[in-house]
Amino acid sequence: MVNILQNSPSDFEDIKEWDYKEHFYTLNTEYGDLRIHYVDEGSENDKTVLLLHGEPDWGYIYRKFIDPLVENNLGVDVHYYTAEDKLKRKEELRKQAEKMRKVNDLIKE
After folding, report:
1. What CA–CA distance (Å, rounded) separates 59 from 50?
2. Pairing status of strand 74-79 against strand 32-41
3. DSSP class of residue 22?
4. Residue 32: which residues within 8 A CB-CB, separation 6 or more?
5. Between 48 and 108, the higher pLDDT residue
6. How far apart are CA 35 and CA 33, in angstroms?
7. Does residue 26 sit within a domain?
8. DSSP 8-class letter at 87
9. Does residue 4 sit within a domain?
10. Domain range for residue 27?
11. Quick check: pTM over 0.85?
């Protein structure tokens, strides 16, 4: 059995310059449901910018980008790896990569 690690919302309460509402997409996997965190700002705008980051970064690196993009009539989605669920065992990183491929497939739809 693979354990799923889940952050508590309180882990992110005191982060400065991060006033964005949390959103989660639930992805059903063979290990159970994994929550994928994202930020969705300005989604009422006609155009959307998708900001992705690598590991070990997280969406906080975009904190200075989001508001100016929205002010220029662009919607912003940020994939935010730190707050989402993760598989505990290192040998399961391949499964984490598969999860990201599924996210990519959702984006293409």
Report:
1. 11
2. antiparallel
3. P
4. 4
5. 48
6. 7
7. yes
8. E
9. no
10. 19-108
11. no
pLDDT exceeds 70 at position 102: yes
Q: CA end-to-end span of the chain, whole Å? A: 32
3-class secondary-structure state, position 60 = helix
41 in any annotated domain? yes
Summarised one tens digit per residue, pLDDT across range 22-64 is: 888 888 887 788 888 888 898 888 888 888 777 667 888 889 9
Taking the C-alpha atoms of residue 22 and residue 58, their distance in angstroms, rounded to an integer, is: 14
Q: Count of CB atoms within 10 A of residue 99's CB?
A: 20
Identify the pLDDT of residue 84.
66
CB 59 within 8 A of CB 7: no
Can you tell me the distance from the alpha carbon of 6 to that of 52, in angstroms, rounded to the nearest whole number? 20
Is it the case that residue 2 has pLDDT exceeding 70?
Answer: no
User: Which of helix, strand or coil describes residue 1?
Assistant: coil
